[in-house]
Amino acid sequence: MSTGTGLGSAPPGPVSGSDAARPRSGRAARTLTQSDARAGIALISPTLVVVLVMVVVPIIWTVLLAFQRLRLLNLRSSGLFGEFTLNNFDNVFTAPGFWGALATTLTYSVLGTAGAIGLGLVAALALRRPFRGRGIVRALMLLPYVAPIVAATFAWSTMLNPQFGVVNHWGARLLGWDEPIAFLSQRSSDISLFGLTIGVPTALLTVIAFEAWRSFPFAFLFLTARLQAVPATLEEAATVDGATLTQRFRHILLPQLMPTIAVLAVLRFIWTFNNFDDIYLLTGGGAGTEVVAVSVFNALTARGDIGGAAAQALALAAILAALIGLYLWRFAPREERS
Amino acid sequence: MATTTTETAPPPAAPQRRGWSRDTVETRVFGVLRVVTIAFLLVVTVFPFYYTVLLSLRPLDRVLQDPGALWVPPSEVSLGSYGAVVAPQSAGGQGFLNFIVNSALVAFGTVAVTLLIALPGAYAVSRLQFFGRRQVSVLFLAVYLFPPILLAVPLFVFFTRIGLRGTLVGLLIVYVSQVVAVSIYMLRNYFDTVPASLEEAAAIDGCSRLGVMWRISLPLAMPAIIANALFIFMIAWNEFLFALLFLIESRDRWTVSLGLSQLAGSIEIPTTVLMAGSVIVTVPIVVLFFASERLLTEGLTAGAEKG
Question: What angle separates helix A22-51 from helix B133-144, to the nearest 10 degrees?
Answer without folding.
Answer: 20
